[in-house]
Amino acid sequence: MKTIITGATGMVGKGALLECIDDSRVEEILLITRSSVGVSHPKVKEVLHKDFRDFTGIESQFHGYDACFHCMGVSSAGMSEEQYTEITYTMTEALVATLHSINSGMVFIYVSGDGTDETETSSTMWARVKGKTENMVLDRGFKDAYAFRPGAILPERGIESGTRLYNAIYFITRPLFPLMKHIKSVTTTSKLGKAMINVYHYPQTLKRPRGGDINEIAEADAPQ
């Protein structure tokens, strides 16, 4: 499998990257990022790209890939709906449209979030926008597509969140991580990465997996 990863400077994307590096089933990894991830490995190729609303200048780099793990995202805190939609929906739609035009036979995974509203009618702004984004991804017509909806995510392998507040919370709660991992709805950066790889190899009927589902998929060794 050859995969594209966005958001690899963030917690979820970095987790996916590390799992892809370690997994022998993954042959090549293309990172599309605004700033260097700082990871050097024979599998990894990095393309720096500033404008995620337009991939015209680098679309030739996308040929030959089987999957995309779209892990890029931001917190809605302090953002207007217009600003949040620009980053969450508009940039994702630009990537989806470009990749679909090049290879509709690929598998596209969008990392969404627990509480997302696919009806797009929620009174909560971020839930509506993410729901709209999920629907666009799932309806585009890829060979297969998923909207992962993790809730609580525990960082592993030295990974840190790009949000200071989250890092402070993780620092305080780290002694509880071993207990929290036994909670079905809680997942980890490692399990998220493994689940992304596994849905390519073992297609799932559930297209919007949540925390517990993600954990089960991460442990899959046979078609589900």
TrEMBL record:
Pfam families: Epimerase
Main location: membrane
Subcellular location: Membrane
Residue span(s) of domain NAD-dependent epimerase/dehydratase: 4-113
GO cellular component, one term: membrane
Domain of life assignment: Bacteria
PANTHER family per record: NAD(P)-BINDING DOMAIN-CONTAINING PROTEIN, OXIDOREDUCTASE HTATIP2
Stated name of the protein: NAD-dependent epimerase/dehydratase family protein
Organism from which the protein derives: Neolewinella aurantiaca
Lineage: Bacteria, Pseudomonadati, Bacteroidota, Saprospiria, Saprospirales
